[in-house]
């Protein structure tokens, strides 16, 4: 009996190692593609839209990074708030004063068009966009000076309907909680390698990432406008999916942006991740049920225990650790340039155990907590729970 359990865990470990090899293949393919890709000099006018709610310590730095772009075309920065008393309004006024040469517009978005306040604001901001090309990103996204050049240039090809990009999540420089480290490592060591693997296996991606959603106004209108996704939790995923279904290509750029991780407590991390896992389960159920096989290290540890600490199980554990760490270094450090991965490498086995527990708990219910309210997910849509 014990041997059978050990063999079962060993098979799960081997499946996880196989996924690690697939992720490495996907990472290599992504890097090679962009190393040889032609970058056309295409710089039309672009409007960057940022819906706002509240402030955080790095918010102004994120705003300012959009004002120092090495971009040849005209740029409009469009901010939207539902309440003109929001503290983010003062940060926009500060930005306008510091960068008077920039076209910076603040839009009041008083209407609540649906469950998602963010998308509701975006829908009201869009008529104020001066340019055909639109870039949507979250308020706290920090970008490099080449950001717009890299994001917009693929649109030289008329078949391209969306450009999106990966991101690294940065914790506090000092005193980051263990849970904040879990969150950041989850992006660099799980989400992005999985993204590269999916891109390789599916010959591209068919969804968007909220770190950057670049498209055209005409295409947004073609898919029914932003109002069509105002009830969806994963609005970024849904927008990219609809653009793909309309016959356009979605490009994953090699540009990497940066976002900040809150100082999560255990409960804050758990609730945030539970919402994320249930969103994945709802959006990509096939991928979700294969997710636990990707965590090879916890299964290898279980194999060691189930085998009675037999020598062969330690060999398997060594292979699993090597595969897992190689993926983290290749994608997290090599592509994302995330130095936190090196600093927190020892945390990864602990995080992987937590992820398995989250995966299991996410199966037990379809209710999520979002902005202080409880909702049920139904095919991506948010329905208020009784």
UniProtKB/TrEMBL annotation:
InterPro entries: Ceramide_glucosylTrfase, Hopen-assoc_HpnI, Nucleotide-diphossugar_trans
Protein topology in the membrane: Multi-pass membrane protein
Domain of life per record: Bacteria
Gene Ontology CC entries for this record: membrane
Transmembrane segments: 6-25, 288-306, 312-333
GO biological process, one term: glucosylceramide biosynthetic process
UniProt keywords, alphabetically: Glycosyltransferase, Membrane, Transferase, Transmembrane, Transmembrane helix
Pfam families referenced in this protein's UniProt entry, alphabetically: Glyco_transf_21
GO MF annotations in UniProt: ceramide glucosyltransferase activity
PANTHER family the record matches: CERAMIDE GLUCOSYLTRANSFERASE (PTHR12726)
Record-given protein name: Glycosyltransferase
